[in-house]
Amino acid sequence: MPVLGAATWVGALVGLLVPLRAIPVAVLALLAVLGVAARLLDRGVGRRLRAAGLPSAGPGAGPGTGQVVRTALAAGLLLAAAAGVATVHRVGTTTGPVSALADERASVRGELVVTGDPRERSGPFSDYVVVRGRLTVVEGRGRAWEVRSPVLVVAPSDWVDVPLGSRLAVSGRLVPAEGGDLAAVLRARADPEVLEPPDVWWRGAAEVRAALRESVDHRPPDQAVLVPSLVVGDDAGLDPALAEDFATTGLTHLLAVSGTNLTLITAFLLVLAQQVGVRGRGRVVVAVVGIVGFVLLARTEPSVVRAAAMGTVALLGMGRNGLRRGTRSLGVAVTVLLLFQPWLATTVGFALSVLATAGILLLAPSWRDALARWMPRWMAEAVAVPAAAQLACTPVVAGISGEVSIVAVLANMLVAPVVGPATVLGLAGGLVGLVWTPPSRVPGTVAAWCVGWIIAVARWGAALPLASVGWGTSVLALALLTAACLAAVPLAPRFLVRPRLVLLACALTAVVVLVRPPTPGWPPERWAVVACDVGQGDALVLRVGPGSAVVVDTGPDPASVDRCLDRLGVDHVALLVLTHFHDDHAGAVAGVLDGRDVDAIDVSPLDEPRTTADDVRDLAAARGIPVSVPAHGSVRQVGDVRLEVLGPLPGVVRPAAPAAGSPRQRDGEGSGANDASLVLLAEVAGVSVLLTGDVEPPAQRTLLRTVAARPGGVDVDVLKVPHHGSRHQVQELLAAVRAEVALVSVGADNTYGHPDPDLLHTLEAGGTRVFRTDLAGDLVVTRPTTEDGSVGVVTGRG
Q1: Percentages helix, strand, coil for the chain, rounded to the nearest 5?
Q2: CATH class of residue range 527-655+668-795
Q3: Are 431 and 211 within 8 A, CB to CB?
Q4: How far apart (Å, rounded) are the C-alpha atoms in residues 306 and 337?
Q5: Separation CA 755–CA 725 (nearest Å)
Q6: Which CATH code, of 2.60.120.10, 3.40.50.150, 2.60.40.3210, 2.40.50.140, is assigned to 102-198?
Q7: What is the pLDDT of residues 549-603, one digit of tens each?
Q8: Where is this region: Disordered (predicted)?
Q9: For the stretch 650-687, what's the b/e string if a residue is b when 16 or more beta carbons lie within 10 angstroms of its beta carbon?
C-alpha cells in the first residue's frame, strides 16, 4: 500500500503540473519506467528465492515474483487514475463560465456557499476580509449558470461575521486566481446578504468553538488564543511574534489542525467509552463519531480532512500489529485523499503530514528500542517520536524556510507531556460551556496552564543564540540535506544504542545552541545607519551606542527585523519610530519587541489603518511602553542620534485614504496614511539622513517648501528614497537634498514595479550612489573614513 500511495501521488502531480497536452505522454512514460523497474525487481526476487531453495511463485512462496507483478499493475492503474482525476479537477477549475468571466474581469452577481472561516487582513490602504466559498450560481455578461466553482472572496470588513456554511447573495468583480484550486477571486462590493443560514451541525460546531473561547477568555491573551488553536486550529488573534517563535522551535504543528489533535481527542473518547462498558462495534461507532465531530469543529477544509486521515492512521498504528496496520493505512489514506482531493498533492501541509506519519511509523520503533536499552522506555519513546518525525520532515521544512531547526526535537520533547492534557481539557471546557459557562473555566484554566508551558518553551527556544541555522534552498543544498537524512536512517539505531556517544552529541549541541557564534566583520565597526532587508517594507536602524539603537519602521515580517537586529547586536531600542501604520512599515512591531527593551514609541498622527494602529498600541500597553505623536519641528537627542521632525505639517493630515485603484491613487496623488508619514532629519555620529517614510507627491511638495525655507536648505549624506522607489516622486525634492547615497528598501519580485527605473536613472545622473535591499541585502552606511568626508556603504551580500 505505501507503494500504491506513492504512485497515486505521482499521478496526481502529473495531472496538476504537466501541460495538459503532455499529460498522456507523461503518463505513458511513467508506466513504461514502472514496467521496466517491476521487471528488473521481479528477476532479482526470483533469483534470490531460487538461490534460497524456495519457490518463486505459488502457495507458500511469500513475497515472490507474482506479488511484484501485481503491485506494479496496481501502481500503474492508480497512477493513471490519479492523473486522470487530477486533470478533470484542473480542467473543471481553470475552465468554465467562472474562469472565463474572471479572465474578462466581469462584474457578476450570484450565490455563494461559505466553506471557510472569514479571516481579517490589513492591507496598504484599509482592512479587509478573505473567505473561501463555492459559487453555485453566477450571472454575468447577460447570462446565468449553475456551477460548483471554488473561489476566494476578498470583501469589506463587514464580512468578518459571515457564518460558515451559510448561503449568500453576492455581487462583485471576478478576477483570475493565481494557481491552486481556485477558479477565480471575487472582489465583493456589497455587504453580505444571507439567503440561507448554516445547517444545524455547523451551528452546533460554532457554539462549541464559542464556548471553548469563553472557557479561557479570563486567561492571558496568548493562552486564550492558543488553547482554541491547539484543540481545533482556531488561531484567530494569534500574536505574529509568537507564531514565529513556534516556527523557529519546530512547534508550528501545534498551531494548526493536525493528526495529533484527532488522535488525542478520539483516543480520549475511546477510553471513556471503555470505562462505561462500550465494547466491540460500539467502540468503532464512538471512534467514527469522534472523527466526524472533530472535522465539523475544525472545519471541512482540505487541511482538516488530511489531518483527520493522518490521525486515523495514527490510531490504527497504536493497536496490535501497529507497524503493518499503520503503514498499510498510510498508503490507503494517501491514495483515497488524492483520488478525492488531488490538489492536496501540491500542498506542503500534505507532504509534511505524510512524511511525519511515515517517520513515526517506520523509524521511531527501532530508535525507541535502541534508546530503551539504557534509559526508561517512556523516555525513549518521548525522544524517538519527535526525532523521527523531525528527520523525515527536515528537507521539506528547509526547502520552505531555508532553515534547519536545532532545538525542534528538544522543544517537542519538553512540550509533549502537556499537549494531551491541554487538548482534552480544552475540548472539555468547550463542551461544558455549552451548558454552563462558569464551570467550564475549571478545565479551561488547567488547559491554559498547560499552554502557558508550551508558550514558555517556544519563547525560550527561539531566544537561544542559535535555535536554527540557515540552509540554502537551491537544488544542490536540498539534495545534500536529503542525502544526509537518508544516511541517518540506518546509522541512527547503531548510534542511539551507545549512551556515551548520545550524551556527548547532546552536550556539543547544547554548546552550539547556547553560544552565539561570531560573525566576522559584521556589523562593520563604524556603522551608523542600516537599512534592513525585510522584503517589501522599511526597517532602518540608527546606532545610538553599543547594543542600542533607534529603529525607524519594522517592515511586515517580525522574523526578518528580529534577525537584522540580532545581527547588529541590538538588544536595547531607545526609540521605535513608526512613520505610518501601513503593514509594510508597522506590521512587525512584535519582532522588535522580542527579547529587547524598548523605551518609547513615536507614531504618525493618523491612526490608519485602524487595526494596525490598535495592535501597536495594545502591544505597547502590554509592555508598559509610552506611545506619542511627536510635534512638527520638535528635536530629540537620543545618545549619538539627533532627530528633527520635518513632517507632516500640523493640520494637513487627511483623515482617510483613497480606495486602492481610485483615480487619485492611480495618478500617484498620495493617500492619507502615506502622506501622514513622519519625516525625520537624523544625524548619527556625523552622518545626516533624511527618512521619508512613504510620502507621495502632495506631501513631498510640502516637504520641498519646508526644505527650501531652511537656511542653507537640507544637504544630507543619505536619503531613504520615499515609498520604496515608486515612480510618483517630486524630482525637485530629490535634487534639493543633494544626497550622496540613496537607500531603496524594496522586496524582490514585488508586484508594484518598485523601484522605478527612471527614478534610479535620475538619482544616479545627479551623482547619487543608489543601493537596493532586494539586490544587496542589508545596507550598512558607515561613518566617513576618508579626507573628503564621504560615507561608506557595506552590503549584506557583498
Answers
A1: 55, 15, 30
A2: alpha beta
A3: yes
A4: 7
A5: 4
A6: 2.40.50.140
A7: 999 999 988 888 988 998 888 989 999 999 999 988 998 898 899 889 999 999 9
A8: 653-673
A9: eeebbeebbeeeeeebeeeebbbbbbbbbbbbbbbbeb
